[in-house]
Amino acid sequence: MHGMTLFETYAIFGVLGVAILGLAYAVFLRQQVLKEDKGTEKMQSIWGAIKEGADAYLSRQLRTILPFIGLLTIALFFSAWIVNPTLEAQTEFGENARLYVAFGRAIAFLMGAGFSLLVGQIGMRMAVQANVRVANAARTSFGGALKVAYRAGTITGMLTDGLGLLGGTLIFIIYGTAAPDALLGFGFGGTLLALFMRVGGGIYTKAADVGADLVGKVEAGLEEDDPRNAAVIADLVGDNVGDCAGMAADIFESYEVTIVSGLILGLALVRITGNLNWIIFPLLVRGIGVLSSIIGTYLVKAGKDGSGADAMGAIFRGFLSSAVISTVLFGLVAVFYMQNVPGGWWRPFLSTALGVGLAIVLDRITEYFTGADREPVREIRESTDGGPATTIISGLAVGYESSVWATMIIAVTIFVAYLIYGSIPGYSGFEQVTFVLYGVALTGIGMLTLTGNNVAMDSFGPIADNANGIGEMAGLEPKARQVMADLDAVGNTTKAITKGIAIGSAVIAAVSLFGSFITDVGVIDPEALAQGIRVSQPMVFVGMLFGGAIPWLFSSFAIKAVSRAASMIVSEVRRQFKIPGLMEGTVKPDYARAVSISTAAAQKELISLAVMAVVSPIIVGMVLQVEALGGFLAGIILSGQLLAVFMANAGGAWDNAKKIIEDEPRNPAKNLGKNSERHKASVVGDTVGDPLKDTAGPALNPMIKVVNLVSVIIAPIIVQFKFGLGVLSWMVVGLMVAAFVWALWQSKRRVVLKETVVA
C-alpha cells in the first residue's frame, strides 16, 4: 500500500486501531460518570438551567458558522484545483490527480471542522453532565469528587486524541504520499472551528463573569454564585462554552496542525532521502501518545489527606506517568524503525522526547507564575493592601516576566532541535534546513503526545468551578462546599497550566507550518525562496511589521467585545436588584435575560474576527509577494506568543490571588477575607484579567495557526501565478481589503436584543 513494507502497513492499521481504542475509552468513562447520582432536586434544577443555556448557545453558534464553513469548503476545493498537482499526487492518482486532491482537501476540511465541533460539543455536554454529579460526590468524599471531575474531563481529552489520530491516519491510508495536500484542509477545518469556539466562548463567559463580579461581589457584597445574581447562570454556562468547548477545540487543532506540518516536512525528506520512514514515524508517535494518555489519566486518584495539594499532586503524577511511558516507547520505536534513516535513530527519538520535556517545563513554569501557593501570586496578594491600582500593577509585572521565560524556553527548544538535526553530513544547506524544521515538527508532535492529559486537566477546571457554583446556589453543607472550593482552586491552576501548554504548542506548530510554507513554495518554484526570507529587504520588514500588529488588533476587538457586553450585564443585574423581593429571596431573577445578552455579544464577533485572520495573509501575500508573506508569519508568531502568554498568566495570577484572600478567615476590620477592602481590590484585578486569560489570550492560539495555514495554502498559488501585477489579482485584493474593512466595522457595531442595545 502506497509503497509501504508489510510492517509499515500493519503499523498504520495498528495506529488506526489505537485511535478507535481511545474513542472506546471515552465511551467507557462516559458510562462511569453517568452512573453517579445527580443529587437533590434543587441541585438538579440549577443544573437544568446551566444545561439549557449551554445547549442554546451551541445551537445558535452552529447556525452562525455553517454558511461560512460552506463558503470556505468551496474555496478549499479551488485552492487545490488551480494549482498543478504535486509529483506524489500524480504518482498516486495519475491523470485524475487534480480532481482527487481538490475533493480530498475540501472533504478533509469538512472532516476537520466536524471533528473539532464534535470534540467541543460532546466534551462540553459531558462537562455539564458531570458538574452536578461532582457537587453531589463532594458531599461524601474528596476523592470521589476528584475522580468524577477528572474522568469527565478525560472524556474530552480522549475524544481529542482519538478523533485527531483517526482523521490524520484515515487521510494517509487513502492518499499515501499525497496526504499532505488533503491534510491542509483537515488542519484548516479544525483550526477555524477552534477559532470560532475560542472567540465565541471567551466573549460569552467573560461578559457574564465580569458583569456578575462587578455588581454581585464589589457593589452588593454577595458571594460568588449567589442565586440572587441574575448573571450567575450565564457565568456557569460560560465556564463550559469557554473552557471546555473552546480549549478542547483549541488543543485539537494544535494536534491536527502538528501532524499536518510533520507530514509535509516528512514528505520533503522523502524526496531528499527516499525513506518513507519520515512520514510513518509521526503517526506511530501519535499512536503511542493515545496509549500513554489512557494509562496516565486512569491513574489519577486522590490520596488520604484530601487536600488541594494532594489533588494537584495526583494530576501531575498521572501527567508524568504518561510522559515516562511515551518517552520509553518513542525510544523503542526509533531504535527498531528509524535505524537506517540518515542521521540515525537517536535524532528523531531526541526530537520527540524534547517535545515531552517542553510540555513538562511549560507546565512547571506556568504553575510557578499562577499557582496559589507560589511567590508571584503571593506578591499580588500582598499588593492588594494598596488597592486596585497596585494589584493591577503587580499582576502586569507577573504576566510580563512569565512571557519572557516561556518564550526563552521555546527558543532554547528550537535551538536544541537545530543542534539535533543541523549536522547530518552529505546534504546541502537547504536540505539541512528541512531536516531541522522536521525536527521542530517532531518536537511539536512529542509535546502534544500528552494531549489526553492536557485536555483532561483543562476540562477539570470548569467542571469543578460549576460544581462549586451549584453547591453554593443549592446551599449544600459546609464540608461539601470546602471540598468543592479546594477542587475549584486546583482547577484554576490546571486551566492556567493547559493554557501555557496550548500557547507553547501553538508556537511550535506555527514554526512547523512556517517550515511547511518554505517547503511548499520550493516545490512550485525552487528559486522563489532560494536565499531564504531576508529581513534586510524592506518589503519583508513591512510584512513582519504587519504580522506583529495583527495579534494586538485581534486582541483589542475581543477585549472590547467583552467590555461592551459586560457593561450591559452590569446594567441588567443592577436593574434586577431593584425588583421588589429579589434581594430578600422571595422573587427569582430572570437568568435567561443575562444568557441572551452574553449569547448575542458572542455570536456577533465570530465571523468578523475569523475574516480578519483569513484575509490578512492573502492581502499581504498578493500585494507584497511570497517573501514578505514569510516576514508576516514571523511577525505574527513572535508577537502572538509574547502577548498570549502575558495575558494568560497575568489573568491566572490575579484569579488565584483573589482565591487566596477568599480562603482567609473573614475579618473586614483587619482587612482580611471576603468583603474586605483587600478582597475588593483582588476582585478588580481578577475582573481585569478575565478577558485577558479567557478570551483574547487563548483565542490568539488558533488565530496564529489560521494565518499560517492560509499562508501555506495560498503560497503555491501566489508563486505559480505571480500575483501582484494583473488586473484580476488587484480585483481579488480589493475584495479582500473590503472584507477586512467589513470585519473592522462589524467588530465595532452594536446589535439590538429585544429593544436593548448590546455590544
List keywords for this structure.
759 residues, single chain, mainly alpha, 82% helix, 1% strand
Structural class designation = mainly alpha
Identify low-pLDDT runs.
Answer: 755-759
List the strand order in the largest sheet: 1-2
CA radius of gyration? 25 Å
Order of helices and strands: HHHHHHHHHHHHHHHHHHHEE
Apparent shape: globular
What value does the average pLDDT take? 86
Discrete helix count: 19
**Beta-strand content:** under 5%
Summarize the structure.
This protein is an all-alpha fold.
Characterization of this structure:
This protein has 19 helices and two strands. Strands 1-2 form a two-stranded antiparallel ribbon. Helix 5 runs parallel beside helix 7.
Topology readout:
Blueprint: H1 6-34, H2 41-81, H3 87-93, H4 97-137, H5 142-175, H6 179-219, H7 232-273, H8 277-298, H9 308-337, H10 346-370, H11 375-383, H12 388-421, H13 429-447, H14 451-474, H15 478-524, H16 538-577, H17 591-663, H18 677-721, H19 727-748, E1 751-753, E2 756-758
Antiparallel strand pairs: 1-2
Helix pairs in contact: 1-5, 1-8, 2-4, 2-6, 2-7, 2-14, 2-17, 3-4, 4-5, 4-6, 4-7, 4-14, 5-6, 5-7, 5-8, 5-14, 6-7, 6-16, 6-17, 6-18, 7-8, 7-13, 7-14, 7-15, 7-17, 7-18, 8-9, 8-14, 9-10, 9-15, 10-12, 10-13, 10-15, 11-12, 11-17, 12-13, 12-15, 12-17, 12-18, 13-15, ...
